[in-house]
From TrEMBL:
InterPro entries recorded: Aminotrans_V_dom, PyrdxlP-dep_Trfase, PyrdxlP-dep_Trfase_major
Residue ranges constituting the Aminotransferase class V domain according to the UniProt record: 10-158
Gene3D superfamilies: Type I PLP-dependent aspartate aminotransferase-like (Major domain) (3.40.640.10)
Pfam families given in the database record: Aminotran_5
Name the UniProt record assigns to this protein: Aminotransferase class V domain-containing protein
């Protein structure tokens, strides 16, 4: 992936510490990596249940074109109501090359027909029998978080720690 994009710098950072909960300024680090021609992947496993996630934040200033995230990933089971939900990976399409002859890892389960010439990345990289109910639950959990709002979650946490 990095070789196709002439990228020598791939950075993976946690948006929040799993030990202390301290949040990184993801926009500052994203801009820094992108200004140096790199890719940045964010681990939101600790932060996702509590903060807003924006792949393409809109800001003003000299970093406005550099604060995007190339990919993020997190575990839905850390959310309220997220028991037995799949992990989530959100990545820019440019990271997936349609002409690849095979994926990095094979899926399994029931598939209708296997062919390497599938152009749609989701169809081509599908791992087999999907966790349909679990995926629906993940969507409901995200809707719950949006309905409650990150601001309300933060306010409640501040009350609890006092």
């Amino acid at each position: 992936m990095a070789q196709e994009q002439d990228c020598d710098l791939i950075v993976c950072l946690a948006a929040a510490s799993n030990v202390t909960g301290i949040l990184l300024d993801v926009n500052v680090f994203s801009a820094l990596v992108h200004r140096h021609g790199g890719l940045i992947f964010w681990d939101y496993a600790t932060a996702a249940p509590y903060v807003d996630i924006d792949m393409n934040p809109v800001i003003t200033g000299p970093d406005r074109d550099y604060v995007y995230k190339d990919a993020i990933y997190f575990s839905m089971h850390k959310f309220v109501g997220g028991v037995q939900t799949p992990g989530v990976l959100v990545a820019k399409r440019v990271l997936f090359k349609a002409g690849e002859t095979h994926p990095d890892g094979c899926g399994g389960g029931s598939v209708c027909f296997v062919r390497r010439e599938a152009q749609d990345v989701e169809e081509r990289e599908e791992g087999g029998t999907p966790a349909i109910v679990e995926s629906i639950r993940a969507g409901l959990v995200m809707q719950l978080k949006q309905a409650v709002t990150s601001e309300a979650i933060t306010a409640r946490e501040e009350v609890m720690v006092k």
